[in-house]
Amino acid sequence: MFIFAIVLSTIYTSYTGTFRIVNETESQADIYGMARIALERMHEDLESVYIPKDAKLPESDEDSAFMGEDTEIKGRNADSLRFISRAHLVFSDQEQASGTAEIAYYVQEDDEGEGFVLYRSDMPAFQEIPEEGAGGLVLCDSLISVNFNYYDDEGEVHDNWDSTNEELKDKIPKMVSIILEFENSADPETPFSFMTSVALPLAQG
Do 46 and 198 touch, CB atoms closer than 8 A? Predict the structure, then answer.
């Protein structure tokens, strides 16, 4: 009986350990997949950005601006960004591609109030832009930090970007860097970090 108990204990430990490793591996694979899809989507959106100068587009500077805001939630980066882009996504046969759309990224806390959810809204030109926090689709979740940095023509880094102010009037950044940090349940002190940089087009409008 003693030997039998030792054997069962050994098998149980190996069994539970194997399943723990499998679950952690699947969780990491999900995070890597989310990060890849999110960064690819944001990369394509930003490569299609421009400052419109067409009179048919919204006349308000704010409606056609490149606006990046450095914000925090509970002391963690939760940056937001919105801009005009030609990367409008069409999800139905009834919807017609407009060619241009205002795209916005914004962050909200998840239902448990522990992690962040990154949303993407995509509103065609000529339509009213929804308020931040409405009308967006989930780009990725399980985040602990979302950070954008903006590089001007001189290579200087900016935490914020506002193409409506005098200094940056009708300008877009030379490059935007994106850093997404995801929760790591196995080691909360070491989050999964993903980074990419996007060079924006030189032509504006």
Answer: yes
Q: With bands split at pLDDT 50, 70 and 90, how would you rate the model's confidence at 162?
A: very high
Structure confidence at residue 113 (pLDDT): 79
Amino acid at 168: L
What burial class does residue 155 get, using C-beta atoms within 10 Å of its C-beta: 0-12 exposed, 13-18 middle, 19+ buried? exposed
pLDDT tens per residue across span 74-121: 999 999 999 989 888 866 555 555 568 889 999 999 988 789 999 999
CB–CB of 28/182 below 8 Å?
no
DSSP of 69-112, one letter per residue? Answer: E--EETTEEB-EEEEEES-----SSSSPP-S-EEEEEEEEE-TT
Q: Which two tokens stand for residue 63?
A: 């409606």
Torsion of CA 84, 87, 88, 92, to 10 degrees: 180
Rounded Cα–Cα distance for residues 111 and 108 (Å): 9
